[in-house]
Write a structure and sequence with these properties.
Radius of gyration: 30 Å
Number of strands: 37
Distance between the termini: 119 Å
Shape: elongated
Structural class: alpha+beta
């Protein structure tokens, strides 16, 4: 029998059930998390292999939340023990705040305004702390980046390094010192590890620091000792959305007016918000900017110098965004092979680090890890291919500029050891190709906002070109053309004449002479690596090596870009002439030189059966006494030598450039 339409509608209405959005199970952190919304909840199993899968969250509101949040919080519960921590957001995508299970889901950075609450003894509670996040699906090494004060390279702790292989997993929040150095110990707040390894490996879990072995609970394999293992992720819904703002610790290149404009823009997304206020503070002085526009944009100016700025945006009486450590200064690129990496071989350069020396991203070669590292950090000199790695001579050079000219310096190092010049070329079809060294560096410079505002580019490469001058010159000419296209013609371009090519060979000079000639043919400034006795045949110790190289480079940059003194250029020959049993090397300057006893052995007269017996300096020239007339001689070569002196140096210790010149 047919029912009347009204009856059918009544029955349908009665059958409709409104299913509420799940709120997740109550947690021990609910009181601490007041004002936050739970968006993910997971009862952690004893074993898990979540690699390339989404964990089976019992609550997942990430699609609903999207990017609409301005703080992130976590609650970890283990059999009645609990910890709550909240921080500034490290992502604008709610899907990225859970366990990282897919390639490229890597977070390795500081976070500000860290809040910690816990019932576990030894956990430091409080607000306004500094935090450090290590979240990835990868395996990882103890190697420390140096970004965290008091972290160790000997244990798994608050500063470890993700490696290329996938399949272990780290989800860690640590408390760290706000500065480097710092008296605050680096220690874990919470740790969930081993969630992408295998279905038979126990998870490694902990609140606070592990009392024995590795502090961050790596390899603890202790999940089975807990009956309750729950992670809940929260967000605080945003009331203002930012579209422009600086990063924490960002260096903004200074302009011709001695500072920089740093925009902060966005829109009011909560109807209760009627105005926003931006406070820009430095050295105890605060400038306030207010807007009642739903779409707002502030353009405050900051001054270049040794002072940091804090940007704080407020609405409805709460801080909706805070950025710390902003500076304005100068940016440089360091590029080449291992002597541009310039990591620690003998002696540390850590004493040269400064809060006003910055870097962006990492020179790591793994494209996935490189792409994930897009944050500003502090420049470090002793370790290579880490976040902030710039090399020993670069950090010494940068520190000298900071101290003398009172300007912050950003150093972005893209070097990769043991590579020929072909390795560094641009893929012209895709200049940002992250599979290439050029593309990785270009992406970092673009993301840092400095690609068109560099002061200088410093290049040290050639050992791996094995004295093949033609290949090296062709490759560098192409590379320089691409740099000038991408970086502009304003930066100064510097080329180090390598000490050896290949390593261990100081007698082959074709490539080194070609590099010397680049100063005339390509419009670059050539720098010397002779005069450095801390040389091992390929690389350099810090004392007598990279330290002095940094000093020599600083002096040339100071002359070229900061109005520093002259007389610092490497001694460079112009011509060689013969007269009787003497050769005269005419120099390009009259800067006084020191000629040490024994340097005659580093000269070679080609085409004649004579030797150089002594070398004397006269203003603007070197006079070489020979063992006899140079009959048939075609060229004079200064090949320098491996390791320690003697040398021919200028007033600051920079050595004579290697050369091979015809005798006229």
């Amino acid at each position: 029998m047919r029912r009347p339409a009204a009856v059918v509608l009544t029955l349908l209405a009665a059958s409709l059930v409104v299913v509420p959005t799940p709120a997740g199970a109550a947690t021990a952190c609910d009181a601490a998390a007041a004002g936050f919304t739970p968006v993910l909840q997971l009862d952690l199993p004893e074993q898990a292999n979540y690699l390339n899968t989404t964990p089976p969250y019992s609550l997942d509101r990430t699609a609903e939340i999207g990017s609409n949040f301005d703080r992130v919080g976590y609650c970890l519960e283990l059999d009645g023990q609990w910890v709550w921590t909240a921080m500034e957001p490290f992502s604008t995508d709610a899907r990225r705040i859970g366990l990282p299970t897919r390639p490229g889901e890597i977070v390795r950075q500081r976070v500000g305004d860290l809040e910690v609450r816990s019932n576990v003894p030894g956990v430091t509670e409080g607000t306004g702390q500094s935090g450090y996040l290590e979240m990835w699906p990868n395996q990882y090494a103890k190697t420390a980046s140096g970004q965290v004060a008091n972290a160790s390279a000997m244990t798994y702790d608050a500063d470890d390094s993700p490696t290329t292989p996938l399949g272990y997993g780290s989800f860690q929040v640590s408390q760290v010192g706000p500065t480097r150095p710092s008296t605050v110990p680096a220690k874990p707040v919470l740790a969930i590890n081993t969630f992408t390894q295998s279905d038979t490996s126990l998870l490694s879990l902990g609140i606070g620091a592990r009392p024995t072995a590795d502090p961050d609970w790596t390899f603890a394999g202790n999940a089975a000792q807990y009956s309750q293992r729950r992670l809940t992720a929260y967000v605080r819904t945003s009331i203002v959305t930012l579209t422009e703002s600086p990063q924490d610790r960002q260096l903004v290149p200074r302009d011709s007016k001695g500072g920089a404009t740093v925009p902060v823009a966005g829109r009011m997304t909560d109807p209760r918000v009627k105005s926003v206020q931006l406070a820009v503070t430095s050295n105890g002085k605060t400038d306030l900017y207010t807007s009642a526009s739903r779409q707002f944009r502030f353009t405050p100016r900051i001054r270049a110098g040794l002072h940091e700025y804090t940007f704080e945006l407020r609405a409805l009486g709460r801080v909706v965004a805070r950025r710390e450590g902003i500076v304005s200064g100068d940016a440089y690129v360091v590029q080449g092979q291992s002597n541009a990496e310039a990591s620690m071989y003998n002696g540390a350069a850590s004493g040269e680090e400064s809060p006003y020396l910055r870097s962006f991203g990492s020179p790591v070669s793994d494209p996935t890890i490189s792409a994930a590292d897009r944050v500003w950090g502090y420049a470090t000199g002793d370790v290579s291919r880490q976040s902030g790695s710039v090399g020993q001579w670069a950090i010494r050079m940068g520190r000298q500029l900071v101290d003398k000219y009172k300007v912050p310096i950003a150093l972005v190092n893209g070097a990769h050891g043991g590579q020929p010049i072909s390795f560094f070329q641009r893929n012209d079809a895709n200049p940002d190709d992250i599979a290439t060294n050029y593309g990785r560096l270009r992406q970092r410079l673009t993301a840092a906002g400095v690609i068109g505002q560099l002061r200088g580019v410093l290049w040290y490469q050639g050992e791996s070109d094995n004295d093949n001058a033609a290949v090296h010159v062709s490759g560098f000419t192409s590379l320089l053309q691409d740099w000038r296209s991408d970086f502009g013609t304003t930066p100064k371009y510097y080329v180090y004449q390598v000490r050896t090519s290949p390593c261990g060979n100081s007698t082959s000079t074709s490539l080194r002479e070609a590099q010397r000639e680049m100063g005339d043919t390509l419009g670059v400034t050539v720098l010397s690596t002779t005069g450095l006795s801390g040389h091992d045949g390929c690389h350099y110790a810090y004392a007598g090596g990279y330290r002095d190289m940094g000093d020599h480079t600083y002096a040339v940059l100071a002359r070229d870009l900061y109005g520093g003194p002259s007389g610092v250029a490497p001694p460079n020959p112009r011509t060689v002439t013969a007269s009787g049993s003497q050769l005269t090397v005419q120099l390009r300057s009259t800067d006084p030189l020191t000629v040490e006893e024994g340097v005659a052995a580093d000269f070679r007269v080609d085409g004649a059966a004579v030797t150089v017996t002594s070398v004397a300096y006269q203003p603007g020239k070197l006079v070489l006494q020979l063992s006899g007339p140079p009959t048939g001689a075609t060229a004079l070569t200064y090949q320098a030598h491996l390791r320690a002196g003697p040398w021919i140096t200028n007033a600051i210790g920079t050595g004579l450039l290697t050369f091979a010149l015809p005798i006229s």
